[in-house]
Amino acid sequence: MLLxxxxxxxxxxxxxxxxxxxxxxxxxxxxxxxxxxxLAIRKKLGLDQSFIVQWYDLVKALFTAKLVSYSNQTxxxxxxxxxxxxxxxxxxxxxxxxxGFGVLVGTISAVTAGRISDRAITALALIGISMPVxxxxxxxxxxxxxxxxxxxxxxxxxxYVPLSANPAQWFYHLILPWLTLAVLFIGFYGRVxxxxxxxxxxxxxxxxxxxxGLSSRRILVKHVLRASLIPIVTLFGLDFASxxxxxAIITETVYNLHGVGWYAAQSIxxxxxxxxxxxxxxxxxxxxxxxxxxxxAYAYLDPRIRLS
Amino acid sequence: MAERLLEVKDLNVKFATExxxxxxxxxISFDLERGKVLGIVGESGSGKSVxxxxxxxxxxxxxxxxxxEVLYKGTDLLQVSDRDMQNYRxxxxxxxxxxxxxxxxxxxxxxxQIAEAIQAHENVGKRxxxxxxxxxxxxxxxxxxxxxxxxxxxxxxxxxRQRAMIAMALSCNPSILIADEPTTxxxxxxxxxIVELVSRLKxxxxxxxxxxxxxxxxIADIADExxxxxxxxxxxxxxxxxxxxxxxxxxxxxxxxxxxxxxxPRPERLxxxxxxxxxxxxxxxxxxxxxxxxxxxxxxxxEPGLENRVETPGHLDRCWLDVDYKREHRDETISGxxxxxx
Lengths: 308, 342
Hints:
The complex is a heterodimer of chains A (308) and B (342).
Chain A: H1 2-18, H2 24-29, H3 35-45, H4 51-63, H5 76-111, H6 116-130, H7 133-144, H8 167-201, H9 204-211, H10 216-247, H11 249-254, H12 260-269, H13 273-301, H14 304-307
Helix pairs in contact in A: 1-13, 5-6, 5-8, 5-10, 5-12, 5-13, 6-8, 7-8, 8-10, 9-10, 10-13, 12-13
Chain B: E1 4-17, E2 20-33, E3 37-41, H1 48-55, E4 64-72, E5 75-76, H2 82-88, E6 93-96, H3 100-103, H4 110-121, H5 126-139, H6 145-148, H7 158-170, E7 176-180, H8 188-204, E8 208-213, H9 216-219, E9 225-230, E10 233-239, H10 240-245, H11 250-257, E11 307-308, E12 316-317, H12 323-334
Parallel strand pairs in B: 3-8, 3-9, 6-7, 7-8
Antiparallel strand pairs in B: 1-2, 1-4, 4-5, 9-10, 10-12, 11-12
Helix pairs in contact in B: 4-5, 4-7, 5-7, 7-8, 11-12
């Protein structure tokens, strides 16, 4: 697990080093920098060291929470911590919405397969999957929020209100970001679940359940959904982890939520390596932890895995 | 006379598919009395499983059309609503399927799955259902049922799973047990045990059994009456004795010839029926078996009715051939001695 994180950090570092125009010393020194100036900054940041040593120093600083950004010398770990409430609020709310609606939509569409409701859901799901998040976010803002020009201002125009400060405003401000982030996943999960259910329905054990004289509702919930949800749980674990870990960069940026994703976007814009490294490892950590959780959940959902 | 449980009259099952209408079951009729075992034999695609599933109401769907009557204790099951059918499934009619590997839900314990059937039909508590489940597992010969009841299906062998399926099918004491090729997926020694078990439990539970198989050998011991199906139709029907010792349909001869037997001289090769079963969308004209029948002649272009053509009453067949001619020639096929069979 730690190995995965180290590997991720190494790759990020490598990419950063090889991209052109990436010399941070030059940027910090400013437009009128002298060669001596640049060299001095290099020395101060340790950029004159070898590749491996630099990487080692960086990772060490990060894990001891001493890493600071190039551009404004703020502590990376503190910055990430500051972004957590917004990011977690966004991720958890959106996660609940997309999982709940994904399952609902997928089930309805599978049960009514071939009928109008199924076709309508399929069309909507494909639209949801195809819409770029940035575009959807801006469109929603334009038409429904603030006074973007449409004259309708049902929702606040971006921004984040801490839950502890005002729960109602917190909720109100997050509705649009939640929906924006959830739409893609609802469509996608709905489609996956639909096909899983249609596969499971033809399984012999479902026929057995029917032959036992169970009601169709019980068969659906207890026998069909249980089996069909297993792959969805994997998907959800990883998607949710990536959003928790600051992966909702676009949504956070569009709605001006100062979370981890937004922080990442800022750092990318200023080609600031330390925050990027911090955010990436932060995200990777969630992915790794949630992979483990998914495995554990799997063993619970599918007893065949427990022994092997 | 024993109680008549089931009366199937001129049952037709058709499925609409993309390629056309499949006539899966074409006018079959039979009766079943309590305590009897009815064997239904035929190749894959002869309509035997569809018949069984139709009795259970498991073939219902937007593409299925049914005609005829399936009278269970006087009620036509084809007319019963889907919701009311739940009270028959499992409770009045139990079924065991072909593949015990996939017929149990892999994520629930064996005991839960059996208890679920009991609780679906009877108002009993969890504990009572569990106690009955353990008792059922004991009756079907699962060793140490108190602990095996909490196993998952993957911890059971194929034969044990089939035993668990039997326990499940019998859990609500149904009057009719349908065994749809219950031994096909099992190896031979287990097959014999399962057949023996079904036959013993039939007496214990005082029910009737419909035993479906493609292997006449499997039901040689237990069947009282045998129906031979081909292309969705009954082609021969009679007591076990009639079918085994005085078979009238060349198709039945082929089935008999394909069983290895110890009580006859060993043939060079077992008999195989040439060709494959006909399409049920465009069945051949006349006798459905005509294209594969080595004895076919002009008259076979008209389909013979299912009639009694021999001395024994109740022994019906669909074959135009002269009875004496058949008795003379059938042994070549059955014992596989002739070159034609090889």
